[in-house]
C-alpha cells in the first residue's frame, strides 16, 4: 500500500527556564505539517550540543552513550510509524506519539476481566462452581461501584487480558 503522508523526526533542544546553560532534549514528530513533541528527559549543556546534526559533539563516553540513545529513540519512532502502517491505522503525529509512549492501548476494567473469565470458563467448570463465581462477580461489582463515579481500570502492567487468556486457572476472588 502506498503512503502519501510525510514523516519527519527531529531531535532538538530547548533551554529550561531556571538554567539557561542546561538544555532539554526533545523529539519532534511531524506528519503532514502537524507536530507532536516528546521530552526525552535528557539534559546537555549548551556547548555540547550540535544543532545541525541533532547530536552531541565529541567522542567522550557520555557523548557516545547519549548519541546512541538518540539513535534508538529515532529508530523506535520510525518502527512505531511502520507498525501503524501495517495495522492500517490513521497516521498522525499524535498517533505515533501515543503508540511510542504506550498510551494508545485499551485497558480492561476488573469487571470486564471477571466477565471474560466467567464466559470462557462456563464450559469448563461445573454449574455449582460457576454459581459461586457469578455471586462473587455481583459482589465485586457492588464493592467496586460503591462510592465510585467512574469504572475502576487497571493499567496493562497490573491486569492484562492476554495474561488472563494465557492462564489456566483464575484466582479465587475473596472480598
Quick structural overview:
This is Arm DNA-binding domain-containing protein. Helix content is 41%, strand content 20%.
Q: How would you describe the overall organization of this protein?
A:
This protein has 175 residues and is an alpha+beta fold. The chain folds into two domains: 7-101, no CATH class; 110-166, no CATH class. The protein is 41% helix and 20% strand. It contains five helices and five strands; from the N terminus they run E-E-E-E-E-H-H-H-H-H. It has helices spanning 61-86, 93-101, 110-121, 127-145, 161-166, and strands at 7-15, 22-31, 34-45, 49-50, 55-56. Strand 4 and strand 5 (55-56) form a beta hairpin. Residues 151-168 have low confidence and may be disordered.
- List the uncertain runs: 151-168
Question: What structural category arises from helix and sheet content?
Answer: alpha+beta
Q: Regarding quaternary structure, how should these chains be classified?
A: single chain
Query: What's the overall geometry?
Result: elongated
User: Kindly state the mean pLDDT as a whole number?
Assistant: 81
Strand percentage: 15-25%
Number of E-state strands: 5
Helicity range of the residues? 40-55%
Biggest sheet: strands side by side, in what order? 1-2-3
Helical element count?
5
End-to-end CA span = 52 Å
Largest sheet: 3 strands, antiparallel
Provide the gyration radius in Å. 24 Å
User: Secondary-structure element sequence?
Assistant: EEEEEHHHHH
Q: What number of domains?
A: 2
Amino acid at each position: 500500500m502506498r503512503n502519501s503522508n510525510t514523516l519527519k523526526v527531529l531531535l532538538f533542544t530547548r533551554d529550561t527556564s531556571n538554567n539557561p546553560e542546561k538544555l532539554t532534549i526533545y523529539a519532534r514528530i511531524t506528519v503532514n505539517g502537524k507536530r507532536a513533541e516528546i521530552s526525552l528527559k535528557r539534559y546537555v549543556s549548551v556547548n555540547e550540543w550540535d544543532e545541525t546534526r541533532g547530536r552531541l559533539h565529541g567522542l567522550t563516553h557520555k557523548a557516545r552513550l547519549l548519541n546512541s540513545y538518540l539513535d534508538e529513540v529515532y529508530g523506535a519512532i520510525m518502527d512505531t510509524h511502520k507498525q501503524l502502517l501495517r495495522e492500517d491505522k490513521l497516521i498522525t503525529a499524535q498517533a505515533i506519539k501515543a503508540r511510542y509512549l504506550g498510551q494508545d492501548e485499551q485497558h480492561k476494567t476488573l469487571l470486564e476481566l471477571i466477565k471474560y473469565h466467567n464466559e470462557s470458563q462456563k464450559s469448563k467448570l461445573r454449574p455449582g462452581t460457576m454459581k459461586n463465581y457469578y455471586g462473587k462477580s455481583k459482589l465485586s461489582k457492588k464493592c467496586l461501584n460503591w462510592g465510585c463515579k467512574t469504572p475502576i481500570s487497571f493499567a496493562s502492567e497490573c491486569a492484562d487480558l492476554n495474561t488472563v487468556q494465557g492462564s489456566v486457572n483464575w484466582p479465587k476472588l475473596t472480598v
